[in-house]
Design the sequence.
């Protein structure tokens, strides 16, 4: 008896830390440093596109006022 049950979807790597507050001046989330457009389209991006964005995230932190990050 063959089964046509699809395997479960694989998880998608994400930098989300469940802190969803967007900084007005930079347009970046204070939790993950992504833009709203990136957050909204994350599941539709390719693995390569997500990896490229994730590589940029550490540098994006510098665009945010440290006081907003509690530093």
Sequence:
């Amino acid at each position: 008896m063959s089964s046509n049950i699809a395997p479960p979807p694989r998880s998608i790597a994400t930098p989300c830390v469940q802190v969803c507050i967007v900084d007005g001046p930079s347009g970046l989330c204070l939790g993950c440093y992504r833009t709203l457009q990136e957050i909204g389209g994350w599941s539709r991006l390719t693995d390569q596109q997500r990896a490229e964005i994730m590589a940029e995230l550490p540098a994006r932190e510098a665009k945010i006022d440290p006081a907003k990050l509690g530093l």
About this structure: The chain has a mean pLDDT of 90.
